[in-house]
User: What shape does this take?
Amino acid sequence: MRIKLWVGLAAGLLFLGGCDTINGFLNYSVQPSTPTLAPSLAPSISPSPTPNLTPAGPTPTPTLTPQATPDYRVIPAQACPLATLPAIRAGSPENGLVAWKPGSDSLAFVIPLSDQDWYVGDLEVASGKDFSQTAALTSGVQVAGGLTWSPDGSTIAFIAYRTEDAVYTVMVVRGRAAAVDLFPGQAAHTDNYSSPKQIIQWLTADHLSVNATCGVDCNQLFDVNVTDGVVTKTGDPARQGTLVPAAVATDQRAYDPKHFPAMSSQVWSPDGSQIAYLDGSGNPWLLSVKDLTQYALNVNNAQVMEMAWFPDGKLLAIRLDGSVEIFNMEMNCG
Assistant: This one.
């Protein structure tokens, strides 16, 4: 059973990371009854991280040298770390494992399971002044990513892995109710392998757009009514790469690279005044478009996997390989 779990997870996570990786998934995937693990994704099990919900100490003055244009002056850090939360390990950077709840200061994230911390976990929500108040949204459901809140914040959708039949599905949790599988039973088997799926977006408060593999070089869009459970195909099957990339969309804006530092994985604040980005060495930086300044965010040289802004731009969640760091962007801890 454990081998079957790692096979489906390795294949499906390639799909969740982007449609361009699906051919690699198909090369490694086999029928669920005789799984083979892709060597490059073989996980090493390590103890689950222990949450540290006390505010972190002062952020040191950054000593990193950014790949920057002289227009942006490097200044001491202006953000204060608030909390550290546990998180699963995903093997490669991707979006969709943290999500801010609309109209609330709550952050949804995926914590490790009791016996392993790779690829799947349970869904929790952290809130409160120091994010020490946590509530479990799932138990025993193997959440794999794609966390996406409905526009009104009443429901969260996510990708889950069903161990019993080695297949990916889409589930939702509304309020404190139990998780509901939107592709129950055989409906989840959209191809002959582990049937990876992507959450495109919420169309309305009750309708969800989902992308699923339907075979070799084949994708199918579905409209899912989360209230009555009706799943409807949208259009004809399409070749991979012709569909809108899924996971979680970030605020990407057009900019002239000649007037900015060399940036990757950049995420714009909701009002467009700040950019969280990674430099050429993978270190996180915060750039102020208005003030023409930038500073390093101290994550103790850990690998940054994902960054997500709070809707009002006052908080920034940075998911590392095994934890989530939450920064207050308006508090100077120096």
User: Anything to note?
Assistant: Residues 2-16 form the longest helix (15 residues). Residues 1-44+141-248 form one domain. The longest strand covers residues 207-215.
